[in-house]
Write the structure tokens for this entry.
Amino acid sequence: MPVLLRTLSVALALGLAFACTRREPVPSTAPPVRDAGAVAGQHVVQASDAGVGVTSEQARAAGGAVPALHKAQRKLMGTIWSITIAGGEAEPARFAAERALDEVDRLETMLSEWLPDSDISRVNQAAGKAKVHVGPELLECVRVSLEVARWSQGAFDISWAGLRGLWDFSAESSQVPPSAAEVKAKLPLWNYHNIALDPVRGTVFLKRRGMQIGLGGVAKGYALDAAGALLIRAGFPNFLIYAGGQVLVHGKKGDKRWRVGIQHPREPRHFAFVEIEDGSLATSGDYEHTWVHEGRTYHHILDPKTGFPSTRTSSVTLIARTGLWADAIDTAVFIMGPTRGLEALRDAPGGPFEAAVVDPQMHLHLSDNMRERLVMTANIEPDGLIGSPLPPHDRARPTP
């Protein structure tokens, strides 16, 4: 029986890799950054320095139980990116990690709508006027985005950016929602059918003036895949890359898989963890980028049908083979909600996927294949409600 998906916390340590939202403490090595966009996830890495940067000789001298871990970190795409490489010599590993971050930096110059000269900004500036020749990176992001939009019947739609200016979840936000009339006036701009992609000629065209597209749901995943491919080519196949609520892992950490925890949407704890060897885990949640107005909490994941924050889901955690597909599909499932989202996931493009979804009442919904790998750190009541923490010796897979 299926169950649910999206905002995750990851802290990278020797035995456990977990992420933290911006509401949690920020280590001195990872200063908080303001997110560049309303729908781009902002997280910071809480990392243990233990074992990071030690040489192979030092690891062997310590008994060889833990491989040398080499780390690089940088602020990119409105969040903190952190790369941890397991094994190899320190200097070449760090060089490869820095080159991978350079690749993310390069991609940001093309895929960020916040940079006026980027490919996507040129497309937005020409909305309703002209087709724009763009690079293969933006073409691929738009292609996948349109495929996900068609599959999800518009639940995921990069033309959300037409509502930019109405909603602001930045640190400087006035924290006042737009009126229903203001949203209704701009809602017609949010329609993926008006995005024209010509892969042969290499052009993107927005058919209506005032339209905009934003890649907060795909650019980070695309960049994760590119950075990971660079590390593999450089001869470092064992790594974890963390980027604001999403991780990409390849290989192992010594003889162990990378372990990633799933954040409880309402409490400062994890309710489960998974171990991953190759793939990407992405989380979306209604506890990211939030503010309260007149007793109601507003978050950054908007429903295309209403133009207001979606109310069907509290969090979605998705595991996929690539960062790009994980990034896009988890947002779609969040908007569709637990029942419809998990049913649709069986036929989703880019799969297979594994998903854990938490509804607003804190009931857990799982895809069947997620049951096989999830290890619970909290009691799950018969009706699926996430309960109290479990002691380590009682942790187990969820029952059917």
Observations:
- The domain at 1-400 is CATH 3.10.520.10 (T-fold).
